[in-house]
Amino acid sequence: MFRWVFFVVAVVLAAPALAAPPTPAERREILEAARPAVIAQLGQAVKFKLEQFNVDANWAVIYGGLVNANGGPVDWSKASRCDPALDKSLWIVLAKTDERWRIAQLEVCAAEPPYWYISHYDWPCGVYAGLREGERELEKECLRQEKAGKPRP
To answer: What residue segments make up the domains of the chain, in order of their start?
Structure first.
């Protein structure tokens, strides 16, 4: 019995710390911090269709899509700097400073996921959870680089 308990404790302690999902209040706070900039670029009210929402160490990554305020398609012709003919995705990175969430990176009509091109991990590894590009699992890559002591840019 003792060996079994020791094994379980050792495995738990050896596992990397996982980022906790945001609380409902934190989730709302992050989305409301992002919404005005998204609306400004799209020229219309929208709702988020989130595929990934990760928070770790005062950083948040949001990935997904958008629909109009009624749940229908976005009128991409109203959007600034957006080609209506291309596929669309939403990508937002936010940082919490001075107790406020602020946008660090925003793409509202990316033709393909911006995270596909990540080669340097600038944010805590937990924000990459669930993001994949082909066989690449970005959170695992980030943790391997962190473990190897590779400096962050």
So the answer is: 19-115
- Residues with Cβ < 8 Å from 116, sequence gap 6 or more? 133
Which among 30, 45, 27, 38 has a CA at the least distance from the CA of 90?
38
Q: 96 pLDDT band (50/70/90 cuts)?
A: very high
The alpha carbon of 37 is separated from its chain's Cα centroid by a whole number of angstroms, namely 16
Reported confidence tier of residue 9, pLDDT bands at 50, 70, 90: very low
Has residue 83 got a pLDDT over 90? no
Taking alpha carbons only, the member of 97, 110, 17 closest to residue 63 is: 110
Q: For the residues 49-78, what does the mean pLDDT come to?
A: 95
Phi, psi angle pair for 116, to nearest 5°? -60, -25
Fold of 19-115: Nuclear Transport Factor 2; Chain: A, (3.10.450)
CA pair distance 11, 77, nearest whole angstrom: 53
Average pLDDT of the residues of the chain: 85
- Name the nearest CA neighbour of 24 among 65, 59, 55, 3: 55
Cβ neighbors of 95 (< 8 A, separation 6 or more) are: 58, 59, 60, 101, 102, 104
The pairing of strands 136-137 and 100-107 is unpaired
